Amino acid sequence: MTLTPVEPLPEHEVRVRAPGKINLSLRVGAREADGYHPLTTVFQAVSVFEEVVATPSDERTLTVSGAQADLVPTDSSNLALQAVEALARRTGVDEGVHLHLDKGVPVAGGMAGGSADAAAALVACDALWHTGLSRPELLEIAAEVGADVSFILMGHTAVGQGRGHLLTPALTRGEFYWAFAVQDRGLSTSACYQAFDELHGGEPGAPDPELDVPLMQALRAGDARALGAALHNDLQLASLELDPHLAEPLAVAEDSGALGVIVSGSGPTVAALARSRQHALALAAAFTASGVADRVLTASAPVAGARVLSSD
Ligand code: ATP
């Protein structure tokens, strides 16, 4: 009699995908006593994704692959590990996990790649550990980890207030197409806010910035031309001061017929709104041909927030 060798059980793994974001409008109030700036922003999740695979482990560890993986910390400063710790604290779970991050979102590019990893890690460990938290509970933990993490959980398009974590979903119609000029050099979000403070000063305690009504109307109508005209970023001047070369991709996009172009969040990624999917490819080709980007990406938007792709 021959014995059939017993196959080891496949290791349980949960695979989650989370999008990057752009700020269609970013209005920044004066710095408050706690160092934060009140925001009124309109987030949109775009089809540039992080993929996070969670597998059981004795410890809590992390590896990274993808473009610019060498720029991502693998210690406890990584936002994905911070999200895991926050979830474990909240639920009393004592288990370990190994996370593998495959990065598609530019690192330190103003598109919330780290927050996307954190949101994905929360969703992945909630499934792996069977903690079964409700959406509002996950959103609460997300807000603890970082201002943009809540939006990445939610996805689509939303108005963010406070530090960007008080979210209201926005009505939109249709699909918008984007081209991104990505730089290898990152821009520090805190340096950008510091430059903003120096440029604008401002009175602490001033009212929170107002919501862009024409932009919300453009989204509701699915009117890409009106959306392009309404794009706005209060941090753009500060980003340009820190990195004057960013004027180049902005000019290339305008010359190539973009409906609107802005620095994404605190930069240095430049986001150009296209007329169509084809036009987004043409804008990306113009960025490449003129040598104003280290890498280009195209995307459609809005897309869903962090979601389990497979679990077995
Ligand atoms: P935001 O748009 O939210 O300001 P960003 O897109 O500009 O963020 P991130 O890529 O999220 O920037 O990361 C900024 C810095 O945070 C990196 O330079 C890195 O040192 C650190 N960091 C921590 N966790 C991560 C992560 N999971 N992925 C990338 N960077 C991370």
Protein described:
- The mean pLDDT is 93.
- Helix 1 links the parallel strand 3 and strand 4.
- It is built from 10 helices and 12 strands.
- With 312 residues, the protein is α+β, with helices and mostly antiparallel strands.
- The longest helix has 16 residues.
- Strands 1, 2, 3, 4, 5, 6, 8 and 12 form an 8-stranded mixed beta sheet that branches.
- The chain folds into 2 domains: 157 residues, 2-Layer Sandwich (Ribosomal Protein S5, domain 2); 126 residues, 2-Layer Sandwich (Alpha-Beta Plaits), CATH 3.30.70.
- The structure holds adenosine-5'-triphosphate.
- The site of adenosine-5'-triphosphate has 22 residues, from helix 1 and helix 2.
- Adenosine-5'-triphosphate (ATP) binds next to helix 1 and helix 2.
What is the structural class?
Answer: alpha+beta
Bound small molecules, deduplicated: adenosine-5'-triphosphate
Quaternary state, please?
single chain
Low-confidence stretches: none
Total separate domains: 2
Q: What amount of the residues lies in strands?
A: 25-35%
Bulk shape:
globular
